[in-house]
Amino acid sequence: MEGMQAYGAGKAGGAFDPVTFFQQPQTVLRIVSWLFSIVIFGCIANEGYINRPNEVEEYCIFNRNQNACNYGVFMGSMAFLCCMAFLALDVYFPQISSVKDRKKAVLADVGLSAFWSLMWFVGFCLLANQWQVTQHEDNPLREGGDAARAAITFSFFSIFTWAGQSFLGFQRYKLGADSALFSQEYTDPSQDAAGAPYTSFGGEDVESPVGGAGGGQAHSEGAFDGTGGYQRQDY
């Protein structure tokens, strides 16, 4: 019983094990998504704005579309913060004793991860399209080309890392929902056995003898006189 998990968490109140924590597939995906968000944000913020030789004002490297750069920077920064929040929740998760709170946390993980996967798909399509239609005269020196391609590439990879987190979260939800151990009516068998009154195996209450010694004598004779179904053995 103790090996089972409530919505993917170990026994409530258990000690945090960093080795086991960082070996979990969901933790690995969160860290990878966190790194991808840093790369995307850094590439666009540092090298995503250029200007023509005869201009002073800088424009977005993606077809001079400010919305494309703004979207990439916003998504990268927000995904970074979201990954940090999820990692903190995973660390705290085993300490949550309420099954309802655990269920809400897992459902939030599934929903938000799926949402981020969709948003990165939109971001990948936007950045890839705008990079494809970028005019050569807007960037004759091809400055920031590697950074732009890196942002597009890691946006594509982020689709699958966030989708993987959503899938693992859904598996964790199914594990908790299908387990009778974590239903609201569950009671520990050891505690239930200790608190329940003793009953006979036949399910019938055993009446105490009435009448003191005489009652005990009558009961004893009835057990061996052959009328109660007991057959006396002759040797």
From TrEMBL:
Q: Which terms in the GO cellular component ontology are assigned?
A: neuromuscular junction; synaptic vesicle membrane
Q: Where in the cell is it found?
A: Membrane
Give positions of region: Disordered: 191-235
How far does the signal peptide extend, from start to end residue? none
Q: What is its main location?
A: membrane
Record flagged with keyword Methyltransferase: no
Boundaries of every MARVEL domain copy: 21-174
Transmembrane regions:
31-51, 71-93, 105-131
Keyword Transmembrane appears in the UniProt entry: yes
Task: Enumerate the UniProt keywords alphabetically.
Answer: Membrane, Transmembrane, Transmembrane helix
Entries under Pfam families matching the protein: MARVEL (PF01284)
**Source organism, top-level taxon:** Eukaryota
- InterPro entries reported for this sequence: Marvel, Synaptogyrin
Q: Which family does it belong to?
A: Belongs to the synaptogyrin family.
Q: What is this protein called?
A: Synaptogyrin
